[in-house]
Amino acid sequence: MAIESISVLEIGTSTIRVLVGELRADGVVSVIGIGESKSRGIRKGEIINRDYAIKGVRAALKAAEENCRKSIHSVLLITSGGQVESKTSTGILKLVDPSDNQLSEINEEDIVEVIEIARKVALPENRIKLHTLQQYFQVDDMFNMTNPAGMAAEELRVDMLSIHGKRSTIENFRKIVDDAPIECSDAIFSGLCSSIAVLNEEQKKAGVLVVDLGGGTTDFVLYYDGFVQAAGSIAVGGEHITNDIAVGLKIPSGQAEYVKLKEGSALTNLMERDHNISIPAQQGFPGKMVRAVTLNTIINARMEETFTLVKEHIDQHCSNVPMSAGVLLTGGGCFLNGVRDLGQKVFNAPCSYGKIFEVQGLPSAKEAPFYAAHIGCIRYAASLRTKEEKPTFRKKLIELLWGGAHE
Question: Partners of 231 in the beta sheet?
């Protein structure tokens, strides 16, 4: 028996995608509808033309409705860009007065209360909270605890990681959905969704970095010991590579995108100095011959910069966190030749493609990385749903921990 279907929308720099799916009782995500349209009016994860963006959203929604043969009334918005960052805060709860020389047993209400205290992290007015994710508890002088219930203590602490974005960017994307018009039930960080789609618990415990390579942005999430340690987004993506090629080789963007995917590589090879690539004529522009080493040098420079920016962020905020499970790549950018080998070189860790688990109904296994964030978003939404009428302790915790962009 499957739960009610969930519709998710991603307004990307290159493509607008709507995916309708449901999480079955056996844990498999069943995709029942997909709609896509070319994205216009979006650049580097920011809106530059609202009318074009709204038309693209409407087209993708219509295609998805026709594909799944049902009307879509609300969507979860997958958000990328918006200068997403993470910040750790600590909640402190005094259980007893230290002068009383006694201890108090930690109960469920204490845990909920200290989590609520930690969630109330102060953010600048131009930032909006997307998620709050629990890390470790501290019971008096005992650190790195995961479940303090039933323990005796004077003081309880908990560390929380808040994922937040630029308020104007996220709100403007939500307004586009409203003007489509369709209800936007929540905004979810793309990087977190992708990690949910491709990671198992063992990888999260060992330490793993998920890098989602999009058209206009690159999102990343770092896990260790089962917790998210850092997350963020940088405004560099596949379209930047295309633009670099167009400028460097003096060709239009259509030809640049073609040659990037057909012949390009993120690695340079000096043995290619005498190898030439033929770029066919396209849309009134003449064909051209270019050197392979020139093309790949352009691609390598931008891709290495992208990975380096992510690595610098991780080194700055989580320098001692091991990545024993390596680096997993998702998103359309991971299809570029040589990108995995370059990632391994920059991060000095094993680098592979993130594989979506327990899913059926996607167009093909090869295209799965395009839908990692969508599948993860469905799992995320399903984790928040419950058939219980009376709120349980677990439900309270879930509501506290996942947060929401409405705050």
Answer: 221
